[in-house]
Specification:
CATH class: Mainly Alpha
Protein name: HTH-type transcriptional regulator MhqR
CATH architecture: Orthogonal Bundle
GO molecular function, one term: DNA binding
Organism: Virgibacillus massiliensis
Order of helices and strands: HHEHHEEHH
CATH topology: Arc Repressor Mutant, subunit A
Number of helices: 6
Keywords: DNA-binding, Transcription, Transcription regulation
Length: 140
């Protein structure tokens, strides 16, 4: 009987995803943060001010949970809310100087952990991985 490569690919993808998520979660916890806090700060750090909806779509956290996390980060002085002058219903979230300083310190370390996950995988293989995962994601 032939091996079902679609099923095997799925199982390997799920196991790899779980292992990567656990490694990243462990790394982020070293900075005294939860993954949701880090991903929000990282989004603002790299993309600049965003609405709650934009953040929610970018980090795959539902808007109900994201408000709670934003409240916690705001209390810590790592981000701030800013009302839009043209439309008072719109609230932008932006990283503070303290949040930027924190990310300037910890993001390079976090990026190094990610780089270590891909040691021994050449650039062409990485691009193939990106392309294949995009196709799977689009079909899902």
């Amino acid at each position: 009987m032939s091996e079902n490569l679609s099923l095997k690919s799925f199982v390997v993808l799920m196991k790899a995803s779980k292992a990567v998520q656990e490694r990243i979660k462990k790394d982020i916890s070293n900075y005294g943060m939860r993954t949701s806090e880090f991903t929000i700060l990282e989004t603002l750090y790299h993309k600049g001010k965003q609405t709650i909806r934009q953040i929610s779509e970018g980090v795959l956290i539902n808007t109900g949970s994201i408000t709670y996390v934003i409240d916690k980060l705001e209390t810590k002085g790592l981000l701030e809310r800013q009302h839009c002058s043209e439309d008072r219903r719109v609230v932008y979230i932006h990283i503070t100087d303290a949040g930027k300083a924190l990310m300037d310190e910890i993001f390079p370390q976090h990026q190094q952990v990610i780089e270590e996950l891909f040691v021994g995988i050449d650039e062409q293989q990485k691009q193939t991985l990106v392309d294949v995962l995009k196709q799977v994601g689009q079909r899902a």
